[in-house]
Amino acid sequence: MKIPEKGMKKEDIIRALKNYKGDDLDWRSGKVLGYEYDPGEDANALIDEVYTIYLAENGLAGI
After folding, report:
1. Which residues have a Cβ under 8 Å from the Cβ of 54 and sit 6 or more positions away?
2. Can you give the pLDDT at residue 62?
3. More confident residue, 5 or 35
4. pTM for the model
């Protein structure tokens, strides 16, 4: 993959990422074999916030 010379607008990036998910299976329906677990909206919101806080941190820094 080549890094493009010109960047993309935020809206275009979000749209592209959502399109990539378009063919994903609906694991929340309970019809997908595997280890998927839906903790609910509150837990998902917390997970998103915490993930964002540590997104750019170095997990090996304390070792």
Report:
1. none
2. 62
3. 5
4. 0.51
